[in-house]
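User: Before I run my own analysis I want an independent prediction to cross-check against. Here's the chain; please return only the structure tokens and, at the end, one sentence I can use as a sanity check.
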Amino acid sequence: MTDDLPLTHEDIAEIAAILEKSGYRELDLSTRRFRLRVAKGDSSDSGVTQEWQWAGSAAEVAADTARAEADPDAICSPLPGTFYHAPQPGAPPFVQPGDEVGPETVIGIVETMKLMNPVHAGRSGRIGEVLVPNGTLVAKGEALVRLT
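Assistant: Structure tokens:
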């Protein structure tokens, strides 16, 4: 599955290092296959953050749409990797059952090739159930939480 990734971990690390040393605050790189956004942290943070968006083929988009229609209350993983409930070990989870979420609410992160990718709710609702245990390997399109 990692053969589909357009950049290696080393590529991303090099891009982040160049950005960190530059006078720029953010890099937004788009191609037909993916979009990578890398941004410097503010003064209270260290390092950089990154966010991936996969373009995907028409068949993948159709498969994702079919999964969403099969379980419209599920929020699914946008890519394969390890799903984490919290930003770091020992920290409170991003969301818990009963929490209200909006489209931009981060419900967890998926780590892929040492990149931490936020998973946004994508819509408004209330968390009904967290379906995947913390630290679990997930497939692209796998349901992570269910809204009520």
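Sanity check: The longest helix spans residues 9-21.
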